[in-house]
Structures are given as structure tokens and as C-alpha cells.
Amino acid sequence: MKRLLLIMLASMSIMATSCSKDDSEPSTNEETPTEMPTEEPKTPEDSKTATSYNEQYRPQIHFTPSRNWMNDPNGMVYDNGVYHLYYQYNPRGNDWGNMSWGHTESKDLIHWEEKPVALTRDALGDVFSGSAVIDKNNTAGFGAGALIALYTSADGIQQQSLAYSLDGGETFERFSANPVIKNNDDNLRDPKVFWHETSQKWIMALAKGWARGVEFYSSKDLKTWSHLSTFVTDLSGRPSLQWECPDLVEFDYNGGKKWVLIVSVNPGGPVLGSGTMYFVGNFDGTNFTADDLDYPLWLDYGMDNYAGVTYSNTDDRKILIGWMNNWQYAGAVPCNPWRSAMTLPRELSLSEHDGKPLLKNSVVGEIENIAGEWTNVDDKFDAGSAYQLRLTIDLDQNSTVMLSNQKGEKYVVDINSNTRTLTARRTSATGKSDFNGMFSVPSMSAPLNVEGAKVTIDFYVDQSSVELFSNDGSMSMTNLVFPETIYNSLSVSGANYDAKVRKLERIW
User: Fold this and answer.
1) How far apart are the C-alpha atoms of 119 and 275, rounded to whole Å?
2) Selection from 204, 325, 203 nearest residue 264 by Cα
């Protein structure tokens, strides 16, 4: 299996699982079916049970499919008041395989309605990751306002294909002349497309996988593409990684504009396994040129935020959702009948810290739709099914923050006031961890990226995850945890602090 080879290259020993990946998915010529399914996959309505969304570890404020395997977010587009989220999905089981585009919709980025599977394997192969746009000016000729998806067709080789929807993203027709970008190997994937106003062209970013780079293409009609340029860079000390799921985004910065190239890498993340890095620079319609900064820069310093890309057609808002898992143990996490969740949606912004650009990501303001009233916290609190804890702590001495439950399971975070760093500890004490030898991580550190005498840290705690943010997204750290019951007690030692908590209503 290519996934197994990947792990060997990383010099890591992992418990074998049935999920493997080389677009963070396995090689299509070894682990995906050679023929199309002979029976129709079940729709979400067919597969729901009376206990859906109440199983142990089932997230209550994060999107999960009712059943079956999910990984990368795909085709994220806003259209007529609806946020579409497509995603890598196995409609036939709870392990990686039969890669299709699952589909869910939301009007507020918080509550989701699962829809029937949107795209399944065809003669060109599995449907790997990609993006979607609204063709407002009918450049492709399918009709003004058509929703057009660009994705990777994978069957031993990885080529780029097109499908279009004329009913608001509910159903798709494949373009008769697919693939729109041909290829002869398995290292070109995950097309992310946007309209570049200056050049009046569509721009596509494609990841080069193990070749470690990003290819840029342009098109007038979304069907005929011309190669523009290749972005490559040397990341010293990180030779064994593959590049996936690129996204090129323009931001306001210090009265001007800057472009950020987001790239997911696996392995070679900030701790081990999967991670998401970014480059800051300029894009002239042909070439992306990165500024001279201390790369890699990380979007998230935890173990479980991967393959995140931004929504299209959201004007100035840059909204990102990531896959909340890690390929080191993705197929082993103790979740049934579903496997994997998405992160909370995050709004990106580019700010300056210590004289350098910093990509911030904070939970979208729509979280207020499910938020209760703030209450002060001393020790134990009513956690409900999920909650947000806000801790403001002095930085005049080191501190230790511990979330725990009545079973004695605990999630511990240390704050170093001198280095202004945060270190989280996910071990067997955190909850269930024996399902995979790589899940327990005794130390994962991150810069707080704050100035001043205090830091404010927000913890978004669900049944099986903790998403942590400093100062409204200056730093984020996302980690899966599997305590027997949700943490509902707070202990802080060291510096003075204030703490308050509010319940977050379940979204199902």
C-alpha cells in the first residue's frame, strides 16, 4: 500500500489500518475498486438510525456524516444563501474507499443538513478532492449561475475533471470531454479554482504530491486550461512530505494586498503526520512569489486540522473548514457508525505580529447562534453537550491549565511566560488512546503570538475534540480527544486568571 510506504519513509511504525491515502488517499491502482459499484449507495435518509448523533464520541457542534468514512472538505461554495460543503466520502463503509463527494448544506455554517451523495466513481476513477465556483457570467456555457465543480479523477493516474450543476448543487452532470487536464502519473491533484479579476481568467492551483510543489493553470472557460507556472521551495529538514490541497487567497494587509498560499502536507506536519502550512507573498496572475520568511509557517499547531481550504463566492470573507483528523491514525479512531468530523468553520485574516505577517484563524461569528450566556468558572461547571471556555491569564509567571472529568481523565496545557509558548499534552490520561500507537503525544507546542501582559485563550470543547485559540485566532491548536465523558472541571495553577464558560447547543 502506498500509505504504508509513506509511513516507512517517515520512519514511523504505525498500527495497520484499512484507511490509506496518497491524496492523503491510497494509490488508486491498489486500493480502490476497478469497476463502478454495482448497487446504489444508500442516501443519508436510508442510513440514519434512532440513535443517530448520540453515540459515544459523536461531535455535537461539528459536522459529521450520519454514517461512514469522511475526509477532506471539497467544493466549498456559497450560493443563494446556502453554504455547500462537499467532502471525501465512502458511501459504502466506515473505512477509506469508493471515494465520492458527500454533500451537506447549511444556512449559517453551524447547522448542517446532510444531502444525498453528489458524485461517485466513473470510468476515469474515484472522485478525489477539488473545489466549486459559481459561473456568474456563463464563461463555461452551461448557463449563468451554474455551480461548477473541478475535481481529481484518480485511477492509477490523477487527472482533473469537471462537473456542473443547474439545480443549485443538488445534482451534477459530468462534462463530456473530461478530463480537462490530462496527466500521466499520480502527483497532480486537488484543484482549487478562483476568478482572478485583474487578468479576467480563472486560476487553478494544483498540488504536486510527492514532487512537493504547486502548479498554476489559467482558463477563460473552465474547460480549456493553460499551464502558467510552478511554485517550489526548499523546506530544510522536511524532505519526506507530500503537498496536497492548495489554496491561493488574497488578503488586505497593512493598507495593501498580500496573497497567501495554503498547502496541506503529510507527513511532515508541525508535530507528526498531517499539517497545514502557508506561504505569504504576491501573485501577478502568472507566478506566486513567496516573501522571505521563516518557513514552514503553520495554520494550526495541533494534530488534527488537515486539508482545509476556503469557501468561494463569499466576497471579502475568507472562511476555512478543515478535516479534523490525522493520517497517522485516521482509520483507527474509535468512531462508529461514522468516522471523522470537520473543524468548526474559521474566518481567516492576515495581520502583523513582531513585524511579520501572521495568518489568523478564529471561529466564525455565527457560533453565537448556538451560544448560551457566559457564567463565571471556579472549578466544576455544567458542560452540557459542548461548550466554550474563555480563560484570560497573566503572563508574569508560568501556568498550568487542566480540564478534567469525574473519571479522572484530563487535558493539560502548560503556558510558559518567558518564551510565550503553549504546550498541550495528549496522553493515555486524556482518554481512550490505545487504538493506535501514534495517538498519544506527550508534548505539542505553539507560539502564543501575543503582546502585552495577558493572553486570552478560547477552548471549544466537544465530545471528542478540543479546539484552542489564543487572542482571537493568533494561534490555533486542534486535537482529537476521547474521554469517557466530556471534561467539566477546570484547574489553573500559577498566574492569576479569569475564566468563564458558556454552553453551545447541539446542532442536530
Assistant:
1) 27
2) 325
From its phi and psi, is residue 218 left (phi > 0), alpha (psi between -120 and 50) or beta?
beta
Work out the mean pLDDT of the chain and round it to a whole number.
91
Question: 462 has which bridge partners?
Answer: 465
Cα–Cα distance measured from residue 348 to residue 315, given in angstroms and rounded to the nearest whole number:
13
Q: For this structure, is 72 an active site residue?
A: yes
- Tell me the sheet residues that pair with 266: 242
Q: What is the DSSP string of 3-30?
A: HHHHHHHTT------S---SSSS--HHH
What pLDDT does 234 receive? 81
Is the link from the previous residue into 483 a cis peptide, with omega within 30 of 0? no
CA 180 distance to own-chain centroid: 26
Q: Residue 40: what pLDDT?
A: 43
Say whether 370 sits in a helix, a strand or coil. helix
Q: What is the mean pLDDT of residues 460-486?
A: 98
What residues have CB less than 8 Å from 203, skipping those under 6 apart? Answer: 193, 194, 195, 196, 216, 217, 218, 228, 248, 285
Cα–Cα distance between 301 and 163 in angstroms, integer? Answer: 35
Residue 9 confidence (pLDDT): 34
End-to-end Cα separation, the chain, in angstroms = 37
The answer to whether residue 74 scores a pLDDT higher than 90 is yes
Q: In the chain, list all ranges with CATH 2.115.10.20.
A: 2-361
Question: Using omega within 30 degrees of 0 as the cis cutoff, is the peptide bond preceding 267 cis?
Answer: yes
Q: What is the pLDDT of residue 451?
A: 94
Q: How far is CA 337 from the centre of its chain?
A: 21
Mean pLDDT to the nearest integer, 316-327: 98
Give CA–CA dist 384/163, Å, rounded.
42
8 A C-beta contact, residue 302 and residue 271: yes
Task: Domain 2-361: give its CATH code.
Answer: 2.115.10.20
Taking the C-alpha atoms of residue 120 and residue 136, their distance in angstroms, rounded to an integer, is: 26
Please state which CATH number belongs to domain 371-503. 2.60.120.560
Determine which one of 22, 23, 72, 135 is catalytic: 72
Whether 323 has a pLDDT exceeding 50, the answer reads: yes
As a whole number, mean pLDDT of residues 491-503 equals 97
Bridge partner residues of 328 (DSSP): none
The three-class DSSP label of residue 120 is coil
Residue 378 banded pLDDT, cuts 50, 70, 90: confident
Pairing assessment for the beta strands 356-363 and 489-493 based on DSSP bridges? unpaired
Whole-structure pTM value: 0.91
C-beta of residue 332 within 8 angstroms of C-beta of residue 307: no
Start and end residues for every CATH 2.60.120.560 domain found in the chain: 371-503
**Distance from C-alpha of 360 to C-alpha of 246, rounded to nearest angstrom:** 17
**Rounded Cα–Cα distance for residues 119 and 396 (Å):** 54
